């Protein structure tokens, strides 16, 4: 893919999920992240939104998308990040007529994704049991903060809250005793995003099961479960040793040196993962003897003697600029890199080459920027069919496909149903 992907880059090959229809009743981030991934892979995603308001994130600005005249629209950048390749249909399903509409869509759908509180859709007849009775093959994915059962099931869950409860913030931030100490959340809503990725994986697994058996099923995905599962090596460090991991700033609990270092004009990252890389760093730094020092020769030794090694390294790294270090270390295959701001990220030649900056025509006029999908499938590549939709952009077309006449649609609109 070229430097900046556009809608014209959509491949001729059908996506891997072509022919799959997803009814998206979710909003904000975790659910929409899952359904955008499915849409990028070729599924038809029909996003149901509230008439007149839509997904909450449409209003989470500034910044706002500009129209063709350069004027701000009513769609925030936040909404754009997670609703590409979808159709927007406005339906008020708190009304019986709206419920009937959504049920018609569910009968035709392969997948439903929702992130309401536990039991929140039952009063409208849009819960799994109700829709399964209409469509037994339906794969129904519920995303909540704490799951469909357990003592916290009825609580609302938010990414920030879960980062704290699920242990991530206890591992993130400067250690006690350093300036700026204290727990920190990650700079993006990472738990929501990871939950969306887990949900999309579960949905595709359930579709494979349905292809083999004809059976749909209910998927229960919880933010807390995902956050705990993604503690990865830190969780196992605790479960194996019984020692509670502590905040270490940018340092790694199991690998040394694997952190940020000051340079003559800023900072850089060293990600040294084995003893050979460390020996090559020592040679570039003018201290080949360190590679043979029993305190530093092996990674377990370096972990034990971290407090001695890191200050010695910092005295050396401040003697050259970031670019000078990176040039010298890359020549010796020592993993390293800068700490980029986002302007530098999107100016990076590798990021540009991989097509991670999008530019799609938008229904409001003008262009909608976006970030490309990181999946590269050789036979069924990701396609960017359309920018995130304006509110209700596809309502008439979708209702027409259900058999509604223009007069029927006008009546529903006049009654505030759509």
Automatic annotation (TrEMBL):
The keyword Lipoprotein does not apply. Gene3D superfamilies: Crotonobetainyl-coa:carnitine coa-transferase, domain 1 (3.40.50.10540), formyl-coa transferase, domain 3 (3.30.1540.10). Keywords: Transferase. It comes from the Bacteria. Pfam families: CoA_transf_3. Coiled coil: none annotated. Signal peptide: none annotated. One of its GO terms (molecular function) is CoA-transferase activity. InterPro entries: CoA-transferase_III_domain (IPR050483), CoA-Trfase_fam_III (IPR003673), CoA-Trfase_III_dom3_sf (IPR044855), CoA-Trfase_III_dom_1_sf (IPR023606). PANTHER family: SUCCINATE--HYDROXYMETHYLGLUTARATE COA-TRANSFERASE. This is CoA-transferase. It comes from Oryzomicrobium terrae. The lineage of its organism: Bacteria, Pseudomonadati, Pseudomonadota, Betaproteobacteria, Rhodocyclales.
